Amino acid sequence: METDVFLNEYQKELDLKLSDKHRLNLANSNKKGEEDGKRNLPSVDDTFVTPYEHEIRNNYQAEVEELYKNGRQVLDDLKDRNYKPVSNELKELSPDKIQLLLNEAGKEKARKLEELNNNHLDTVKDIENSPHYQTSKKRFERIKNRWEEVTKKHNREELNIHFKPYWAYILLLFAIGIAEFPLNNQVFVSFRETPLLTLIMAGVLVITLPFLAHAAGKILKQAKTHKIYPFLFILLVLTVASVSYFTALLRTNYLEELGVPEEQLFLDQWTFFTIGIILFLVGTIASFFAHDDSNEFVEVYHKFHKEEEAFVKVEKEINDKRTAEKNEYDLQRKEIQNEYSEKTALFKNRIQDLNTQKIQIAGNYNKVLAFCQGMERKINSNFKEAIFNYRDTNLTFRNNHKQPKSWAETLGNLNGYFSDITELDKS
């Protein structure tokens, strides 16, 4: 039986139970005393105790035995399982012993922290040496070195482009091609080929003019970096001028066949030639402002920023992993520190805590013992009350009103157990 159950529940239940039994025994002793008294039993000359008094003694002795069984179990548990271990530990503890425990706790803390730190460094090293990260890092470092060389060479870090965005430039070239299509289509209609072949021939010329304008503008923009580019630009201009002239001439011949007056044909020829040249110049100017001075700079610029973006993404993943590992490391380090603090506090306050436990255990032990001793005395008192109640009632109903000789002897106490048990020392 647990101590708390004994102190909080069993005592009240036992007290009520014994009180009920005692009331029943008193009622039975009254009844039996009356019956035996009317028959003048036991006889005046009897010197032995009657069976009924033996029965009363046995009933109350059984209550003592039950009390001893339960109370002794609780007392033994408190003494053997609680009080003695605490007392023994108090005897063994000393300031030197506590200091030894503190030193061992400090060594254990240092060992755990060293192991944790080594594991943390290994984990960080594994994260930083991952193939994916190292490959991306080396690739970025190569293009970064190349980028630094190029920026130093050209003395700039931004593209020298004024026509932005690039897709607007592409749309402009496409618009130039669309504008060229109806002009060129009339030229090739004069060849009297099938509509499909006419469209193909006109389409080739439509593609050629924006392409030549694109090339001319880029060559002109980069003329300083390549000595041959100025000659190529002149060649492209002469080519476009020739194509535009002969295209205008072909269209004039077509209009002449349709009966257009000769004066009008001369004007139309140079009008169409001028329109073609203007469209080419527009495309060339757009290409000039849509390109950089150096192909090398553009190529390295785009590669560098592409690799930089990719590396920044990979590096963020690595940093996230490093941060997660650092947070886990800090958390475990804090747990080790808290564990050490709890141990040191426990060791430093151990003697005081043990004394407190000892006082508490001894107090509970003495409470249980005092209750058991009191209940044992009460049961013995109830036993004698039941015996004397039987004898008084018996004597009242006797005809001769004489006591049996056996009643003259002193009524012995019940066999008790707790009176010889001493309290535990709280000091």
Automatic annotation (TrEMBL):
Keywords: Membrane, Transmembrane, Transmembrane helix. The chain crosses the membrane at residues 166-184, 196-216, 228-250, 270-290. It comes from the Bacteria. This is Uncharacterized protein. It comes from Maribellus comscasis. The lineage of its organism: Bacteria, Pseudomonadati, Bacteroidota, Bacteroidia, Marinilabiliales.
